[in-house]
């Protein structure tokens, strides 16, 4: 048994053991520095990139059972157990940039071409369905 295995989950997290690593990495990644990029200065203009940062973590461990409820199996040291788990995910979406010229600040949103195309497809699909309903209704009236 390792030194970390004898500790409870709370003790491991406090000491940075199992589960603590994922949370520590998430804390490093999910912070305001990820949402606001490094400012770029050129010819008296400063550009500050801005992004939406969304993420989450999860971790767990498990348990075991010695002897499966029988005294004989317990005496032989037989048992079963399982455990593990952990995960981390992050999604970063560019939103736009702040353009700073002297004392003026201007917001320029980023164009998400994928979202524009998807929106156009949805509008087109709704138009086709509405047109087919209108044509069916017109045929029924005749």
Can you describe what's shown?
Mean pLDDT is 78; it is low at 1-5 and 9-18. It is built from 5 helices and 6 strands; from the N terminus they run αααβββαβββα. The protein is 39% helix and 34% strand. It has 2 domains: 9-110, no CATH class; 111-142. The protein starts with 8 loop residues before the first helix and ends with a helix. With 142 residues, the protein is an alpha+beta fold.
Task: Please describe the topology of this protein.
Elements: H1 9-15, H2 20-29, H3 32-35, E1 40-42, E2 45-59, E3 63-66, H4 71-76, E4 79-82, E5 86-101, E6 104-109, H5 113-141
Antiparallel strand pairs: 1-2, 2-5, 3-4, 5-6
The helical percent reads 25-40%
What is the total tally of β strands? 6
Q: Determine Rg (CA atoms, Å).
A: 29 Å
Number of domains: 2
**Low-confidence runs:** 1-5, 9-18
Q: Characterize the largest beta sheet: strand count, sense, and whether it forms a barrel.
A: 4 strands, antiparallel
| Shape annotation | flat
Structural class: alpha+beta
Strand content: 25-35%
How far from one another are the termini? 84 Å
Round the mean pLDDT to the nearest integer and report it: 78
The helix/strand order is HHHEEEHEEEH
Instruction: Give the helix tally.
Output: 5
Strand order, biggest sheet?
1-2-5-6
Keywords:
142 residues, alpha+beta, 2 domains, four-stranded antiparallel β-sheet, two-stranded antiparallel ribbon, 5 helices, 6 strands
